[in-house]
Amino acid sequence: MLPLSTRRIRRTIWYYKPCEVFPAALARFLTSRGVECQHVLDIGMSRATDGDIWEYAGRNNCVVISKDEDFLYLANSRFARTRFIWIRLGNCRTS
Asked: What is the pTM for the complete model shown?
């Protein structure tokens, strides 16, 4: 079971260009652990613009999780209501 602070995030969208950086399987894994996640590939938005993804997230009460700095600018706009988690950690080795 995930910690309470993680479970409070209702819906997330994992996004990055290219989409393989955050694999769709990761969103499905988190969903199996009780966190509702969607990957842009799973919702048919792999070719959507950052703005389109941002609008979708806002309409559907989602949190955007991305390494794409462009979302940071959208999140810092005056009227932004969509939540954003900016991943700044680079590629990591597993061994």
From this structure: 0.70
As a dihedral over the C-alpha atoms of residue 12, residue 34, residue 32, residue 66, rounded to 10 degrees, the angle is 20
State whether residue 21 is helix, strand or coil: helix
Neighbours of 50 (CB within 10 A): 16
pLDDT tens across 22-65, in order? 778 888 888 888 888 888 888 888 888 988 988 988 888 888 88
Phi-psi region for residue 51, left (φ > 0), alpha (ψ -120 to 50) or beta? alpha
Alpha carbon distance 88, 95 (integer Å): 20
